[in-house]
Structure formats: structure tokens, C-alpha cells
Write a structure and sequence with these properties.
Length: about 525
């Protein structure tokens, strides 16, 4: 699967940034585009140098291949010859060389865990790493073995590195689950052992009588994954008892028979690992509608399968996957609401079964033209939520400032809705929205109506290429613009700031905010 990062992805504040300065792109030579890489991988050329064979690679052998023209990298136990990919890598050759002749799993997870490297580099696969079995030391070596198991304090000494990295951190108890039944239903209960679990922390997919239920607990993921022993109806309910951290998933039996067991355990069942170490899971969603918002931006509405429970948390994103020229392309997008003024009209669609996206169409792009060609009724794959924004950051905030450029406006939609409907401490929320022209402003009319209706909300538009008739602010993000905009409601009010847009905009904005004495704890950078 080929994955195309958006222009501002990963963004400052994202866990996928390597450093505070971010991961910048480098100019690629002509003929080294993504499409060129696709063509090369389909050309039949031997990209490994092994003439189609696969080998078992020892650590000693891996270390030998550490030069640009002979560069092997291990990712999650698989070794790839990335030399042919060097000139096609958007992050540059130096980024790949950081893991030359070594295990690059940690670096890969930090920068772009979302990339499906197995398909991206499948023609570069050299083979598997030769794994040395971890043998517990017996009592003669000073370690006591009880029933074939080491004492808990010694487990990390014998487990492979990639296993110990995924063990829950100290202080975070592993969840558990149980189930019970009535004549007509089966209820799976997950005990998270954490308070304040919400419905958007739970993702449930019921497909072909297999149940996949994931609970996101802080930065970890707990999974219940079973092939059910009997058939159930596609509709189910999910309930969360927040104060005790209990999740209940109620399935409806197709036949009133007594189940002797819940079902067969499937991949990663009853696992509790760091969220960054989990793979993305997709479900097929149907395109219900699309409408023009500006001359180049559309509002897409996708319907979740009836057997899926998925609510994207405020400020988080998902990945959309499409097949383009025979390859799967993945792009991150932040869901929005169907409108900023939804209470002005009767809701047409149930909010928990539909996901909306504001997406700019790039005519010369690879992904968005294909997306725009979808017909009503067509399907597209949607992942579960990703991102590190938490609404807890907004607790007791009195002044909320939002800086957005172009489609960087999308994460601000749910943040703005949440702030005006759930933040009792809020005195003021202000949006400064940067665009090239008036025609580029997304939902301008709605924003202006919201500002008239809601006294706590103000919006300012800034254009970099305005018409002569424009009477508003002009230019690019600057200290002068921000100094005037970032006026608190009172001298010592608690403030928080969100920023999103193309990488240069976000990086410059964060630098200016630091100059204006905003701390890292008061700033969150979103992916665009």
C-alpha cells in the first residue's frame, strides 16, 4: 500500500514528528515522483539484488549493508534493501541513512507509523531477521524459575526488545473482559480499570460473525477479537459507565440458543499494547453525498457500516484508503461536522453513523482527483481515529485562540463546536483564518453567522492575494498580526492555542508564539 503524506503531515505537536523542528521534505529529482516509484516496482526489475530469493539475515550481515548504494534496513523483523528507494523518499536520503544497517523500527514508528511499509517496499524485501531465541536463565545462573516462568521483575531481561517495548507502562493496569448471555442477547463487558472512559474511546466492528472491539486507554490499546460461536444480528449497542471505566457491548442473537463459549480467539485477542504499535484497521464506508463548498473544496459524507461503532474524538484524524492505478493510497483527514450551524436546521442524518470531510481537490494530485471521481454509492476504506489531541487540554481554559490556513481549518471545526457547547470556563474563542482569496474561504457565511449569534466567538479573515475590493486584513502570519489577535479577556486568564496549516505556516506560527511568550503547554499543532 502506498501512502502519500499531506503537505503538513506530520505536524508540530504530532507524535509522528521526529523533533520539534519537524520532518521536512526535500526536492526530488525529475522522474522520482510517487507515480515513478509505482512504475518502478511494477517493472519487474530486481530491486533487492537477490534475483527473487529471500534470505534469513543475521545482525552481523545487516550491519555490513550501511552505505547509500548498499543500504539494508530492518523494520519490525523484516529486512529491506532501500537503496533503490533513496531518490524517491520525500524525507530525503539522510533520513533513511539514519537506520542504515540497523533496526529502524523505532525511528519508523516515531516518524510515520501509519505508512504500510510492507506494500510500499514489498519489491525491496530481502528477508526476515534471524531471531535468537530468548532462553530464561536457570537457577544455576542466579535466576529462579517457577513453573517455567521468571519472576515478574526479571521478565524484561529475557523478552525480545520489540515485546518489552509494548508492555503497559508502570501504573497502567491491563484491562480484562467477561461475557454473559440472556435468551436473546450476549453482552461483552470490558473492565478498563480506568475512570473517564468515553464512547469515542471505543471502536467496535462486527463483520462476518467476527467481533473486533478496541478500547483506547490513554496511549494504549486493548483489543477483544473473537470469531463468534453463533450468528448475531448486525445491529448492536455500546454503553460506557464512565465513573467505573466499564464498557458493555450488547449483541442480539439470531437464534435463541445457549452459547457454550463466546467464540474462537483471533489475532491479538486480549492484547494490551501501546497505541503506536498497533496497525491500522479499516472498514468500508459508502459515499452518501458530496457538495461544493468552495471552487476547489468539497464536503464529503460517508456512511459507516451498520455493524460499526466509531466516533472520532475531537481534533483527531482518520486515514482514507483508495486504490489508484492498482496500488492502495492512504491520506490522513480530520472529520468535521456537517455544519457549524447545525442547530439552525433539523438533522437529516444520524450523527453517529456518518462522517463528514472537507477536502480540497488538487487537479494534479494522485489521491484527491480519484476521490472526487467517486460516485454516490461507491465505497472507500476508513481507518480508526489517530492523533494525540485530548480535550482535557481545554479544561479551565478561558481564552481559546485558533490559527488556521486553508484546509488547516478542518480540525478547528470540532474544537470550535466542543468549546462553545462543553467549556463552561470559556470566555472567548477567536479564529484567525488565513487564505489566498475570498473565494478560498471555507464556510465563510457560516462563520460570520456564528459570530453574530455567539457573543463568545470572533473570526478574522486574512488574505495573502486579495482583490482590490478587500477591506480586511492582508498578508501572511506575522508577529504584528498575532500580537493584535492574541488579546486575552483578562491579564491572567488561562489561554490555549491551536494551529494548523501547511508546514511553513505552522512552523513559523509556533516560532512566533514562543516569541510572544506562549509555552509548549499552551500550544497544540494539528496535522493539516
Amino acid at each position: 500500500m502506498l501512502n502519500v503524506p499531506s503537505q503538513a503531515f506530520p505536524a508540530p505537536g504530532s507524535q509522528q514528528r521526529v523533533s520539534s523542528q519537524g520532518r521536512s521534505k526535500v526536492p526530488l529529482k525529475q522522474g522520482r515522483s510517487l507515480m515513478d516509484w509505482i512504475r518502478l516496482t511494477k517493472s519487474g526489475k530486481d530491486l533487492t539484488g537477490l534475483k527473487g530469493g529471500l534470505i534469513e539475515v543475521t545482525e552481523e550481515e545487516l550491519k555490513k549493508h550501511n552505505k547509500k548504494e548498499d543500504c539494508w534496513i530492518c523494520i519490525r523483523g523484516f529486512v529491506y534493501n532501500v537503496s533503490p528507494y533513496m531518490e524517491y523518499h520525500p524525507g530525503g536520503e539522510d533520513e533513511l541513512m539514519r537506520a542504515a544497517g540497523a533496526d529502524g523500527t523505532d525511528l519508523f514508528n516515531e516518524v510515520h507509523r501509519w505508512v504500510n511499509y510492507e506494500s510500499m517496499l514489498k519489491e525491496c524485501l530481502v528477508g526476515r531477521m534471524a531471531v535468537k531465541p530468548a532462553v530464561p536463565k536457570d537457577c544455576h545462573e542466579g535466576k529462579r524459575v517457577l513453573n517455567g516462568m521468571l519472576p515478574k521483575s526479571q521478565v524484561s531481561d529475557t523478552l525480545p526488545r520489540d515485546v518489552t517495548d509494548t508492555l503497559p507502562r508502570e501504573g497502567l493496569s491491563s484491562p480484562s473482559y467477561d461475557w454473559f448471555q440472556t435468551e436473546s442477547s450476549v453482552t461483552i463487558v470490558v473492565y478498563t480499570k480506568q475512570k473517564n472512559i468515553s464512547l469515542d474511546s471505543v471502536i467496535v466492528d462486527l463483520q462476518d460473525d467476527s467481533l473486533r472491539a478496541e478500547a483506547v486507554i490513554k496511549d494504549h490499546s486493548y483489543l477483544v477479537h473473537v470469531g463468534l460461536s453463533h450468528e448475531v444480528q448486525e445491529n448492536f449497542s455500546v454503553r460506557v459507565i464512565e465513573n467505573v471505566g466499564k464498557i458493555e457491548i450488547v449483541l442480539q442473537k439470531k437464534e435463541s440458543v445457549s452459547w457454550q463459549c463466546l467464540g474462537d480467539h483471533l489475532e491479538k485477542h486480549d492484547s494490551f499494547i501501546q497505541k503506536k504499535d498497533t496497525g491500522l484497521y479499516y472498514r468500508r464506508c459508502q459515499l452518501i453525498s458530496k457538495e461544493d463548498v468552495t471552487h476547489d473544496t468539497r464536503l464529503f459524507c460517508l456512511m459507516l457500516p451498520p455493524s460499526t461503532h466509531l466516533q472520532v474524538p475531537v481534533g483527531q484524524h482518520v486515514y482514507l484508503k483508495l486504490s489508484v492505478t492498482g496500488a492502495d493510497i492512504v491520506k490522513p483527514y480530520t472529520p468535521v461536522s456537517d455544519s457549524l450551524l447545525s442547530d439552525f436546521k433539523e438533522p437529516v442524518l444520524s450523527p453517529n453513523k456518518y462522517i463528514y470531510f472537507l477536502i480540497k481537490i488538487y487537479p494534479a494530485g494522485l489521491f484527491t482527483p480519484e476521490l472526487d471521481r467517486l460516485q454516490i454509492g461507491d465505497f472507500i476504506s476508513v481507518s480508526g481515529p489517530e492523533g494525540n489531541f485530548k480535550v482535557s487540554k481545554l479544561q479551565e481554559v478561558e481564552d481559546l485562540f485558533l490559527l488556521a490556513a486553508g484546509t488547516g481549518f478542518t480540525p478547528m471545526v470540532t474544537v470550535l463546536n466542543y468549546a462553545l457547547s462543553h467549556m463552561s470556563s470559556l470566555r472567548k474563542v477567536k479564529l484567525m483564518f488565513f487564505n489566498k482569496t475570498e473565494d478560498d474561504i471555507i464556510w465563510r457565511c457560516q462563520l460570520e453567522k456564528l459570530a453574530l449569534r455567539e457573543k463568545r466567538f470572533d473570526v478574522e479573515f486574512v488574505l495573502s492575494a486579495p482583490s482590490p475590493e478587500w477591506n480586511g486584513k492582508q498578508g501572511h502570519i506575522s508577529r504584528a498580526l498575532l500580537s493584535e489577535f492574541l488579546q486575552r479577556s483578562s491579564e491572567n486568564s488561562r489561554a490555549f492555542l491551536c494551529i494548523c496549516g501547511p508546514t511553513p505556516f505552522t512552523d513559523e506560527g509556533i516560532r512566533l508564539l514562543h516569541d510572544l511568550n506562549f509555552s509548549d503547554d499552551e500550544i497544540h499543532g494539528f496535522t493539516a
